[in-house]
Specification:
Order of helices and strands: EHEHHEHEHHEHH
Radius of gyration: 24 Å
Number of helices: 8
Structural class: alpha/beta
Low-confidence stretches: none
Largest sheet: 5 strands, mixed
Number of strands: 5
Strand order of the largest sheet: 2-1-3-4-5
Mean pLDDT: 89
Strand content: 5-15%
Length: 176
């Protein structure tokens, strides 16, 4: 049924630097094998369709880690489920990993490219909701000096607003 606990969760301690969450048990075992069975790897129990419910049940456990690496299948249901699951976690905690050229971790391992699994974990990209940016993303734009537009008929207003600019709205208000 939906909302089962994460497969393999009972094997690991309750906190740490990172945990990898896969879409299937065989992928979890493949990732664990590549990490020498030393680092936490769990799986959602019923694939992409029930992933968010299962992750929600384990949210308390997952938030004790510094990073939650979501490594679901590189297909449309897997990508959608990864985004949905990442959105459940606090900002900055979730990272999404993909293995270039492979659908999942087990496929890469069977093909002899297990090292790509480790690369994917370390190269996982931090998930952020659409439209959310960090200070470093907008720093150059924020420190740029405003450009001067056309002069207003009043020099003091031109000085305050750096002139009139196209495609900007100006609102003036006054006391009663």
């Amino acid at each position: 049924s939906d909302g089962l606990p994460l497969w393999g969760q009972w094997l690991w301690r309750d906190s740490g630097r990172k945990v990898v969450v896969t879409e299937g048990e065989i992928d979890a075992m493949s990732v664990s094998q590549m990490q020498g069975n030393k680092w936490p790897v769990v799986s959602v129990p019923n694939g992409a369709q029930g992933a968010a419910k299962s992750l929600a049940k384990a949210i308390e456990w997952l938030t004790q880690f510094e990073q939650v690496i979501i490594m679901f299948d590189d297909d449309e249901p897997g990508r959608d489920a990864a985004e949905e699951c990442a959105a459940l976690l606090p900002p900055g905690l979730a990272k999404i990993a993909t293995i270039p050229g492979y659908k999942d971790a087990n496929e890469a391992l069977v093909a002899g490219d297990g090292n790509l699994i480790i690369d994917a974990i370390w190269g996982a990209k931090e998930w952020r909701p659409d439209g959310v940016v960090s200070v470093s993303d907008v720093w150059d734009e924020a420190i740029a000096m405003p450009t001067k537009g056309l002069d207003w008929p009043w020099p003091s207003l031109t000085e305050l607003t750096y002139g009139s600019h196209r495609q900007k709205a100006y609102y003036l208000g006054a006391g009663v």
